[in-house]
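Bench notes, afternoon.
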Amino acid sequence: MSAVLSVVLIPFISRSYPAEQYGIINVFYTVGNSIMMFSLLGLDNAVLRFYQAPLPGLTNRRAVSISLGVAECIILSITVLAAVFWPTEISVFLFGEYNRLGILELGLFAAALVMFRLLSIVTRQEFNAKGYNVQQIALTLSTKVLFVVGLLLSTGYMSSITMMTLWTVSFALLFSTGFARKYVTWSFKRVPSSSLNAFLRFALPTMPAALLVWLNTSIAKLIMAGLGDFQGAGVFALAFTIANAFSVIPAAFSIYWSPFVYKHYAAEQDLIKRMQDLITGITLFLVLMFLCFQDLIYLLVGQEYESSQSYFMLIMLVPIQLLLVETVGYGIYLRNKSYLRLVVVAIAALINLFLCLLFIPIWGSLGAAIALGGSSVVMLWGSYYFGQRYYVSVKNVHRTRIVYWLVILLCGSNYWGAHNHWLRTVLVFIGAGVGALLYGRAGLAWFSASRISKRRNNGA
C-alpha cells in the first residue's frame, strides 16, 4: 500500500515541491527511521521471537515494556545531545541550515515510529488482523501522504516535516491508549537475569543486519545531504519512489511464498524449482515492460525531476533482486546459516558506500543510482550463491544466470536508451528474443499440457 500511495502522489509531489525541499523531507524521514531501528537494538525482533514462547519470568508485557523503555530513552538521549551540544552541525547536515526545532521534531518522529513498530508486532502476534491493518494504514498516511497538508502553509520543508511529525505522533498516541494499559508494565522485580540475558543475546545481533539493509538504500541520500546536495537527494528520492513501485510484487509474493517454502521445502522441492523458473521469466517480462513504457510513467513527473529517467531502472534493481532472492536465497535460513545474510548485506553496503563516495561528488544522483544498483547486484549474486549452496531451488542454472545478467544489462543500458527510442527498441527486441529462446520450449510445453488437460476436463 505504501508503494502504491507513493506512486499515486508522484504527479502532485513532483509539481508542488522544489526538488531541494523534497530532498530535505526525504532525508528527515530516512534519518527518523534509522534512529528508530538503532534505538530498538534488535529488541523488537526478540519480542517477535519469544512472543508465542515467553522466557521464564519475562512475560510479553515485560518484554514489550523493556523494549519500549530502552528505545525511547536512547532516542531522548540522542535528541538532547544533538539539540544541546551539536545543533548547528546536525541541523545543517539534515536541513542545510540551523534548525534546532527540526532536531526536536526528528526525535519525536523517531519515538512515534518506535511505538508503531512495537504495536505492529503485538497486533500480528495476537492475530489481530484488523488492528494491524488499521495501524499500518495510519502509519502510511502519516509518513507518505498527510505531510503534503503542509503545502497549504508553504512549499518549504519545515511545514511538511512538522505535519509528518504531528500526524505520526498523534496516531501513535491514539493507538497507544489501549495498548499501554494492556501491554506496558513497570514491574520488573522478578525477571530472572538468565531470561533477560537470553533475550538480549537474541536481540543485539539482529540489529546490525536490519539496520544495514535499511541504510543500504539510504546511504546515497545521507551522503548527498552531507554534501549539501538536497536537490540531488530529492530527484534521487523520487526516482526511488518510481522504481519502488516494483516492490509491490516481491512484498505480495513473499507473504504466501515464505510460509510455503518453510513448510514444504523437503516434500515439494520440484514445485519450488518450477516456481523459481517461472518467477525468473516473469521478472524479465516485467523489466521489458518498464523499459518499453517508461515514457508513460514519466509523463506524470514534474520537469525538475525528469532527469532521473535515465537511471531509475538502476534503482529498480533493488526490488528486482528482492523478488529473485525470494526464490533462490532460502537455503541459508533452512540450514540455520542466517549469519551469511549479514555477511552479504555488509559487503553490499560497503560497496555501496565506496561507490557513493567515489561517484556522487562527480555525477550526483546518477552516481548514487550506480552505487545502489551495484550493491543490489552483489546482494543478488551473494544470496544466490549461499542459498543454492545449502538448498537447491533452481531448475535450470544456465537459464537463470543468463536471465539475471540480461536483466542487469537491460537496467544499466536504460541510461542510454531512456532518451533514444531506437536504442530502446533494440534493447527490448534483444531482451524479448533471448527470453523467447530461453523460455519458448517451456512455454509451448505448458500450453500443450494445458490444452490436453482442458480437453480431458471437457470430455469428462
